[in-house]
Design brief:
This protein is mainly alpha-helical. It has helices at about 5-15, 20-30, 35-40, 50-60, 60-65, 75-125. Helix 2 packs across helix 3 (about 35-40). It is elongated, with a radius of gyration of 21 Å.
């Protein structure tokens, strides 16, 4: 299990201990029940602000929710690993974007790209 799935499972366990349903949590977070269920199943990545909100709703200190107290991994190490993961994801997305740009140029040619740029300037983009 990775950190994200551990966190999702921990959120589920604490929610159950507190006697809250997924519907309760979804309402308090402003999410649909399906979206919240996906969050607990680890299908949705959790943002830092979302984790902070969940910690507040569950009335548990954020470090405890993240497992820093009982984990051999320090908060700083977790942040380094998360930063590395995000940098890698960003790099993959940038590469994918670059590939799409090349395909677009190949399919439509530079003339179309120039025309789109001029139209964007005219409308203020």
């Amino acid at each position: 299990m990775n950190i994200a799935s551990n966190l999702s499972e921990k959120i589920r366990q604490i929610r159950l201990q507190k006697g809250l349903s997924q519907e309760n949590m979804a309402d308090m977070l402003g999410l649909s029940t399906t979206a919240y269920g996906d969050l607990e199943r680890g299908r949705t990545e959790l943002s830092v602000s979302r984790v902070e909100n969940i910690a507040k709703l569950l009335d548990i200190p954020l470090p405890d929710l993240l497992g820093f107290e009982s984990s051999s991994m320090s908060e700083a190490e977790w942040l380094r690993q998360e930063n590395t993961r995000l940098l890698a994801a960003n790099s993959r997305l940038q590469n994918e974007l670059d590939q799409w740009k090349l395909k677009f140029r190949h399919w439509f040619g530079e003339g179309v790209i120039r025309e789109i740029g001029q139209q964007r300037e005219r409308i203020g983009f």
